[in-house]
Amino acid sequence: MHDNLSAPIWVNTNQLLQHMVEDLSAQSRVAVDTESNSLHAFREQVCLLQFSSPKADYLVDPLALRDLSLLAPMFANPKIEKIFHAAEYDLICLRRDFGFTFVNLFDTMQAARVLGYPAVGLDRLLGDKFGIKTDKRHQKADWARRPLTKEQIHYARLDTHYLFDLRNSLERELRETERLDFALEDFGRACQLEESKQKLNGESWGRFSGRKDISLRELTVIAQLCKWRDREAERLNRPPYKVVMDDVFVALAKNPPEKKVDLSAAGLSEKQIHLWGGFIIGAVQHGLEVPLVERKQIERRDDAVLRRLEKLKAWRKNAGMQMKVESDIILPKPYLAALSENPPKDLTELGQIMKESPSRFEKFGVQILKTLGVKHAN
Q1: What is the distance between the alpha carbons of residues 27 and 228, in angstroms, rounded to a whole number?
Q2: Distances from the Cα of 214 to the Cαs of 35, 99, 209, 293, in angstroms?
Q3: Distances, alpha carbon 151 to alpha carbons 23, 148, 155, 194, in Å
Q4: 220-271: per-residue pLDDT in tens?
Q5: What angle separates helix 180-191 from helix 358-371, to the nearest 10 degrees?
Q6: What whole-number distance in Å separates Cα of residue 30 and Cα of residue 76?
Q7: Distances in Å between the alpha carbon of 122 and those of 38, 84, 125, 140?
Q8: Interatomic CA distance for residues 345 and 312, integer angstroms
């Protein structure tokens, strides 16, 4: 079906960027996607932006164009709908790297989830609906490398080219099933600014602290190893796991090596031992001597809060089974915490809590109050 597509426009100059922005700004709908290098760099960055209008497909090279501020008005324009597939990650990356703000989007993956599709990947949806085949191998490619291969360019443009047709098909189904309002509310929440989590150098050991099979001394050794690894990963500009895997650190902490010959038993390769053996042994020895780290405490919730939370989870799971959707489509996760921690006294209070999801409030409000044990829920 896509053999006769014209070549996408490679945008790597300010003049080409201006031309593309003029086209996109004149549209009522624009399809958008991004490619990043999270599997290949210490700090990921957006390495490619894909746009489609009814006229053309564009591939924008942010490595050649340092200033993409011309795109900001389009993303913030409420009169232009931005079509994404699985928008959440793209929005996080675009906010982080370029400071864009967003209004009026349509997320085809979330639309498919609201409809109860069992498989919502873009490749699956395009294949089932339009007979289009995509090569998923390129999902893990290093998109910071230049030049991109012909296969990468073709893959990238397919991520946006057919989003218009997919969006229209899903919107029809949402209207037919009377679920469009659910989806629109989800799209609106996705546009809201969320604080991005910065990667704190040397603090990656914190994710080990919840493991009960790791003692405080072992955790302290792991903390020193993580601090060394994060510095090395940043120096090499690669993800920490591509220096040494987490499970190796656990093995080193439980059986501290004294010499390089001991390192292979923990799972280190000869190359790793040659490059970093001395540093690793030094980090382990330091971890055995320094004061113990403190486990990061998980805030303990009140028993009454936990009971309400479990009741809400059970209710929304049952409601999801009846509608044949995942439970978070019934009641999105942010509402679980809000309702269990500060239960409303009546429908008016519940409506205020759920003011950004009026269709769910209308459909499920009474059920939610009954689940929370609020009297006179009717």
Answers
A1: 50
A2: 37, 40, 8, 12
A3: 26, 8, 6, 34
A4: 999 999 999 999 999 999 999 999 999 999 999 999 999 999 999 999 999 9
A5: 100
A6: 12
A7: 20, 10, 5, 15
A8: 16
- Size of the chain, expressed as the number of residues it contains: 378
Residues 6+ away with beta carbon under 8 Å from 257: 263, 265, 266, 280, 281, 284
Q: What is the largest CA-CA distance in the chain?
A: 72
Q: Which residues contact 182 (CB under 8 A, 6 or more apart)?
A: 114, 174, 329, 359, 360
CB 52 within 8 A of CB 58: yes
| Residue 360 · residue 182 · CB < 8 Å | yes
Residues 363, 331 contacting (CB under 8 angstroms): no
The Cα–Cα gap between 204 and 91 comes to 24
- Note the pTM of the prediction, 2 decimals: 0.90
For residue 166, give the nearest of 52, 85, 89 by alpha carbon. Answer: 85
Phi/psi zone of residue 234: left (φ > 0), alpha (ψ -120 to 50 degrees), beta?
alpha
Query: Which residue carries 């004294």 as its tokens?
Result: 258
Torsion region of 256: left, alpha or beta (phi above 0 gives left; psi -120 to 50 gives alpha): beta
Give the Cβ contact number of residue 13 at 10 Å.
12
3-state secondary structure 32-52: EEEEECCCCCCCCCEEEEEEE
Q: Which residues pair with 81 in a beta bridge?
A: 29
> Each residue of 262-313: pLDDT tens digit?
999 999 999 999 999 999 999 999 999 999 999 877 777 789 999 999 999 9
For residues 228 and 272, give the distance between their C-alpha atoms in angstroms, rounded to a whole number.
Answer: 14
Helix (H, G, I), strand (E, B) or coil at 179: coil
Distance of alpha carbon 338 from alpha carbon 311, whole angstroms: 14
Q: Which two tokens stand for residue 260?
A: 């390089």
Determine the Cα–Cα distance for residues 279 and 271; give it in Å rounded to an integer: 14
